[in-house]
Design goal:
single chain; about 150 residues; globular
Amino acid sequence: MTTTPPLLNPRVIALAHYAARGILERVLARHGLTFQQSVTLRLAAVAEDPVERQHLVDGVVDSLKIEAAEADAVVDELIASGALSPQQPSRIRITEAGRQLHETTSAETAPLSARVYDGIPEEELAVAGRVLSLITERANRELAALTA
């Protein structure tokens, strides 16, 4: 008996997201990080120089669709932990400890992600990437209309 795969829909996307996030959160928990903290730390890690705090908060809000106050609190948590450091007048930079934490968690999740994606043809990944990017764009537009 052959099972027909489901068409892409919100449930399929959510199941994939939460399965992958579950993997990531288990790795992060071993290092005392939350998912929100890891997203924030990554944004600081990929920045060339210290970033404006508001720019960092805005990036977290855009990525996670959370309130600015919640994202701001996550930045404060990472400063308190020593992973981020405030710079004058309103900039934030990743510390060496924060960079090491980001590199360690990224290295630990890389082989897990590789196994998840193993064997999926590149053409199918390209199609999925295009479709999910379009869904993200449209959902962001709808969210903006709801919050306007």
